[in-house]
Design brief:
Layout (H helix, E strand, L loop, with lengths): L12 H4 L3 E10 L4 E4 L2 E10 L5 E4 L2 H4 L7 E4 L14 E6 L6 E13 L17
Antiparallel strand pairs: 1-7, 2-6, 3-7, 4-5, 4-6
Length: 131
């Protein structure tokens, strides 16, 4: 008789079906890094920049701080990212230049994979290009 294995990021079935909605809003994204920890692994994400200043989005704090290399994407003021099919459990945000704070909305479709079963995305764990 088999043993039940907890769902993890390699379980294809978790990514085939519709996802559960997760929404978050940051009223003030400025020159301090903000993080968003997800309760479950993501299936897709969309970032909406409601303000006028551009915002950096990354998967590590070092990535959005360009330490040692820039590993982020920028969502310009008043625009949104496309729907990004990305597996992750944490997102980081930082204003990209400018002097005014901006506000950002995040739409995440998440799976049934607990965040503890999603790997930490850092260069030190073998994920190059994320910070």
């Amino acid at each position: 008789m088999g043993q039940w294995v907890s769902s993890n990021h390699n379980n294809t079935d978790e990514y085939l079906g519709s996802s559960f909605p997760f929404l978050h809003h940051f009223e003030t994204v400025s020159n301090s890094v903000l993080s968003l920890s997800l309760p479950y692994g993501s299936r897709h994400i969309t970032i909406i920049n409601n303000g006028s200043e551009a915002v950096r989005v990354g998967f590590t704090e070092n990535g959005v701080n360009s330490n040692p290399d820039p590993n982020f994407f920028v969502v310009k003021g008043g625009l949104s990212s496309p729907r990004l099919e990305i597996k992750c459990k944490t997102l980081f945000f930082l204003r990209d230049g400018g002097s005014n704070a901006t506000d950002v909305s995040v739409i995440v479709g998440y799976t049934n994979v607990p965040s503890k079963n999603v790997p930490v995305l850092t260069g030190s764990t073998g994920f190059s290009g994320v910070g």
